[in-house]
Recover the amino acids of this structure.
């Protein structure tokens, strides 16, 4: 369609490449987006029954937490989304320093991705490991601690919003942008939904999904939520979609540039004094020009 062609020309890439699904196999510093999180535990509260306060689950497991701002959080069981972009990232929580270690976001995880620790892939070997048994135990332990994360960017509406006490909240009727870090347990559902569209030559940006959740069980008996995506409707692309897509691309670029800056800072520490002087001379020459 004409709008799709216009977006291609403006971005210098195909729409599928921009969205990040062309070759699917499978925190912000000063720029923020509303964040979506799938809740794995219900929220308990109290309701009044026949004049008595009864403790019950007021926000169910599998509800979606929508953080609109620091002091404005709502929950929805069935939000409606359009997916504008999908990126992938290696990540690991460092409990000693209490920071999230992560790589830049990319459309796939096949190459060596710089991370905010000054290394590549958080130390994880790149590429597919054909012979797992040949990998030493230390590397195996490292690989197990590093998570593959899929990050979804899109527009969201929700008509069934509540607060954390289960009270009705204002519906989100006008689409808002969002970012959603999909947990590994829900990645398969996301891939299946997008690949189903691809077989029909439909891009996610041209379609709506209704988010839901199934309940899974851990070996210890505890429950957790698994995202589901229910098919919605086809939508026509508009010029506003082009603006939103450009904004998402700029957001991703900003986030990646911040990680690359941290990578550079940590690697500068390994440069010798003589090399540092050479680099400084080049910088001075460029500034003089």
């Amino acid at each position: 369609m004409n709008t799709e062609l216009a977006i291609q020309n403006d971005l210098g890439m195909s729409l599928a490449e921009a969205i990040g699904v062309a070759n699917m196999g499978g925190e912000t510093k000063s720029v923020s987006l509303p964040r979506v999180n799938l809740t794995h535990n219900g929220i308990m509260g109290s309701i009044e029954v026949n004049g008595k306060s009864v403790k019950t689950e007021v926000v169910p497991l599998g509800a979606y937490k929508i953080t609109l701002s620091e002091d404005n959080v709502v929950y929805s069981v069935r939000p409606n989304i359009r997916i504008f972009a999908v990126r992938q990232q290696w990540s690991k929580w460092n409990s000693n320093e209490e920071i999230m270690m992560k790589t830049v976001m990319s459309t796939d995880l096949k190459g060596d991705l710089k991370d905010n620790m000054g290394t590549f892939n958080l130390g994880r070997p790149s590429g597919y490991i054909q012979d797992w048994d040949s990998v030493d135990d230390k590397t195996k332990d490292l690989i197990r601690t590093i998570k593959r994360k899929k990050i979804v960017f899109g527009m969201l509406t929700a008509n069934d919003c509540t607060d954390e006490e289960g009270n009705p909240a204002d519906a989100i009727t006008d689409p808002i942008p969002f970012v959603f870090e999909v947990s590994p347990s829900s990645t398969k559902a996301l891939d299946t939904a997008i690949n189903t569209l691809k077989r029909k030559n439909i891009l996610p940006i041209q379609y709506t999904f209704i988010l839901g959740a199934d309940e899974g069980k851990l070996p210890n008996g505890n429950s957790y939520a698994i995202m589901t995506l229910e098919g919605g409707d086809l939508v026509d692309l508009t010029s506003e979609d082009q603006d939103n897509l450009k904004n998402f691309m700029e957001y991703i670029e900003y986030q990646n540039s911040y990680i690359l800056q941290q990578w550079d800072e940590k690697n500068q520490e390994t440069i010798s004094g003589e090399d540092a002087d050479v680099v400084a001379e080049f910088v001075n020459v460029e500034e003089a020009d």
Summary: The radius of gyration is 22 Å. DSSP finds six helices and eleven strands in the chain.
